[in-house]
Amino acid sequence: MNTVYDFLETIEDDVQQKRVKEVLDWITRNYPKLELTIKWNQPMFLDHGTFIIGFSVAKKHLAIAPEPQAINELEDKITRAGYEYTKQLIRMPWKDSVDYELLQTIIDFNIQDKADCTTFWRK
Hints:
single chain, YdhG-like, alpha+beta, globular, YdhG-like domain-containing protein
């Protein structure tokens, strides 16, 4: 799998495929300097070669993976949005609308927090 199109084609459910495309398109429009790539068969966005946010598809939700530091920092906002989360990911149920304000907050946090990062993942 090399392209976002290839990734989207693996999503059998049309509603889920459309939702993922909308989220990826929203990030691309609002963060044009971020690089959209596929790694480990998942779409992710990079800034100067460092990971900012990634996504994966599950039966009941879209998983958002921003690294544990972002989840720890924004835990109260994630809870207020009504999303379940673990140390590694946030679960956005397919039945719920996308909280783009939260998504923006997560991306902005990681861009700022990793501005001087020289590695793919935080150390």
